Amino acid sequence: MVNFLIFGPPGSGKGTQSVKLAEKFRLVHLSTGDMLRAEIASGTDLGKRMSTIMSKGELVPDEVVIEMIAVKIDSTKGFAGFLFDGFPRTVAQTVALEKMLNDRGMKIDRMLVLDVDHDELVKRLIARAEQSGRPDDKDPAVVDNRIDVYKSKTEPIINYCREKGIYQPVNGMGSIDDIFARLAEQMKKFV
Ligand code: B4P
Q: CB 3.0-4.6 Å disulfide test: which of 14, 52, 167, 185 passes with 161?
């Protein structure tokens, strides 16, 4: 099993690239954003509480996403590994993921970080808002808050992973196909 994190600010293309990479490398794509949106769509109490948090551009509590990921890891068999998209988003989530994987004889093999300019992030999210109807994309103040939350709570994971020797920056500017080729080149070294 080989396990990757795909990492970057909101709108950096994590979700877009993960779908293509998971298919190419036969990985299980685990997106906490997609899992949370599915919970909201099914109208559960948990979904209702998470919807309020996400529509403000805040992170949902660590224990909620850690539990979701643990259930998925244990119910998935027969793949080459996992591609974690949008998880972890805090250092506490990173420590929990490492423990979860280590307890099952696995580890985080590589963290691929998409580097994208601030203006390009805002441009992509505004464009997505027109098609997706996602409430967290529609309001520019919420988009700004998501980017601020990324800087304060999520970016510190980069240093944590750099110290572990698994950090790999990737240029996230340009066409979807060009960025895909750069990511695939890095991943090939491990698969
Ligand atoms: P996510 O669903 O993870 O989404 P994201 O960060 O907004 O976007 P992503 O980087 O995946 O962008 P995408 O490929 O779609 O998070 C949403 C919310 O869920 C968070 O704010 C938080 O509240 C909550 N959450 C999720 N995980 C959590 C966790 N672990 N802990 C706590 N809270 C959590 O790309 C964006 C747009 O750009 C798309 O329209 C795409 O088509 C376009 N695009 C992509 N690449 C492009 C390119 N190269 N050129 C032009 N456009 C491009």
A: 167
